[in-house]
Amino acid sequence: MKVISVKTSTEYNVYIGSGLAGRVGEMLAETTSPCTAFVISDENVFRLYGERVLASLANAGFRTGTFVFEPGEQSKNIETYGKIVEKMAREKLTRSDVVIALGGGVTGDISGFAAATFLRGIKYVQVPTTLLAAVDSSVGGKTAIDLNAGKNLLGAFWQPAAVFCDTDTFSTLPEAEYLNGCAEIIKYGMLGSEELFESVAALPVSLHYDAVVAKCVDMKREIVENDEFDRGGRMVLNLGHTVGHAIENKSGYMVPHGMAVAAGMCVITRAAENLAFAEKGTAERLLRVIREYGLPDGTSAPAGFPEEELAGFSAESLFEAAMNDKKASGSKLTLAVPKRVGECALLTIEKSEFIDWLRAGGLK
Ligand code: ADP
Ligand code: ZN
To answer: Which residues of the chain fall short of a pLDDT of 70?
Structure first.
């Protein structure tokens, strides 16, 4: 088991290893007196891992409560949030109790937001069961739900009290979910660790989960410790995301996040090289790994998507989507831009220049 200590406004440990879902109770009991542990999960994850976590909590002396919702991003809304906090109130949770978010990013985000706001903030623990949540959303304390006007528009910074990442749970992930995580992991390599990049180029992520997840979490730890409230430095984590979000948006959220980020990363890296920000050969190295994983490179449709849909991902249409992004206000745009494999920089441009980047990145 690997342990990474995150020193933000509150300090907490991220535990990464095999079998942790069955040890949540025992490990939580080391720092938390007997209380109510309120487990929030989606139907898929609860069916697979709910029993294991509940039994471990009960064995360690916790009283348990549960809330299980329909899987998917469409549940990450005010309605589900309302049902969660109403049930927490009916179960008489107090500030001495704890919420357990068992699942992927959707579960982590909505449970974290419920914990951040219920009684003005109660403790919560993340038990990420997707590779994406393990390397990204479960660490760093960003919690949110979606509004009709856009994703993640209602949220709070609220750090978890602990993160228990059981890498065994990744064995049941659907292929697309596995690839979502791989795309973000390749991103971590690109933005800050050539060694990680090479290690996942040489060996599929699934063959060394513990080492790969620990490396990503440690990188995220450092970034979050330096910019807990997302005022600047955390933006490097957006590598590939400005273009990626535009692709997701234009596809009506049919293209999965990881595929969109992979494509976005390829576009921005090609552009960086063509505009002489990145060393020659950087894009070629990235493309080789992206293709090895069967991820899209931004110039052809993602696997399973008809080629003609590519028309929807032209420079022009992605530019329009990026301009309409609710979170990008003002006349400027900050991009995370690779300089070489393992290093990237933040670059602020006029929004109108973004179209040149998309074209330089190979989009028609
Ligand atoms: P994210 O990709 O942001 O982590 P979700 O929380 O929506 O997103 O999870 C993605 C999908 O994967 C959901 O349908 C969820 O039920 C399912 N899922 C999560 N963890 C596992 C797992 N370990 N095994 C099988 N399915 C899982
Ligand atoms: Zn992402």
So the answer is: 306-312, 326
Give the pLDDT score at 352: 94
Task: Give me the pLDDT at residue 258, please.
Answer: 93
> What is the Cα–Cα distance from 277 to 255, expressed in whole angstroms?
29
What distance in angstroms lies between residue 200's CA and the mean position of ligand 2's atoms? Answer: 18
Is 44's C-beta closer than 6 angstroms to any atom of ligand 1? yes
> Whose structure tokens read 């406004």?
9
- Beta pairing partners, 11: 7
Residue from 44, 70, 126, 172 whose mutation best tests the ligand 1 pocket (most atoms within 8 A of CB) = 44
Phi, psi of 158 (to 5 degrees): -150, 105
pTM of the prediction? 0.96
* Structural domains of the chain, with CATH: 2-172 (3.40.50.1970), 228-360 (1.20.1090.10)
Whole-angstrom distance, CA of residue 95 vs CA of residue 117: 11
Q: Which residues contact 54 (CB under 8 A, 6 or more apart)?
A: 39, 64, 66
* Cα–Cα dist 243/313, whole Å: 10
